[in-house]
Write a structure and sequence with these properties.
- With about 160 residues, the chain is α/β, with parallel strands linked by helices.
- The protein has a single domain, classed as Rossmann fold (3-Layer(aba) Sandwich).
- About 35% of the residues lie in helices and about 15% in strands.
- The strands form 2 sheets. A 4-stranded parallel β-sheet has the order 1-3-4-5, with helices on both faces. A two-stranded antiparallel ribbon has the order 2-6.
């Protein structure tokens, strides 16, 4: 099986630091069970451009990892990314960051039962689970996408 690829969704206004830490800790030379290549938008884009770009990126991934911060319920872009992922049968799960817990609101479309604490063993277990769900049940997608657009690689 090809290495899993993930799109990392986060609250651009409040959780960029946590996104940087999450991606940084998941580098190939770290003790995590996988590596992450960050494909998040580095700047604000016009709405139409953003939607087209995100939809294309999500279509080339095996899963969407939502970094759930304390103010996540107000992040409209994250809810749109979750909806786009679901439209394309891309499994979605969340990881609590920035002191968020089960007491914090989740973005629309993200189930509490699919949100875990930021412990790499739990994140890895969700990655493994996602690789058996949604579009991943159909053989993992296009080989060109697997080779060209790898976002998350198992160690």
């Amino acid at each position: 099986m090809a290495e899993p690829r993930a799109f990392v969704s986060f609250d651009f206004d409040h959780n960029e630091k946590q996104r940087n830490l999450f991606v940084g800790q998941a580098k190939s030379d770290s003790p995590t069970p996988f590596t992450v290549q960050d494909w998040s938008s580095k700047s604000r884009l016009p709405q139409v451009t953003w939607e087209a770009e995100i939809k294309k990126k999500l279509g080339r991934t095996n899963m969407c990892i939502v970094l759930v911060g304390r103010t996540m319920a107000s992040a409209a872009g994250v809810a749109k990314e979750i909806a786009m992922a679901k439209e394309q049968d891309v499994p979605v799960f969340g990881v609590y960051v920035d002191g968020a817990t089960a007491a914090n609101a989740l973005p629309v479309g993200l189930a509490r039962s699919r949100t875990v604490t930021w412990e790499w063993k739990k994140v890895a277990a969700m990655v493994d689970k996602c690789m058996t769900e949604g579009k991943n049940r159909r053989g993992g997608g296009c080989l060109l996408s697997l080779l060209t657009f790898g976002l998350l690689r198992a160690k």
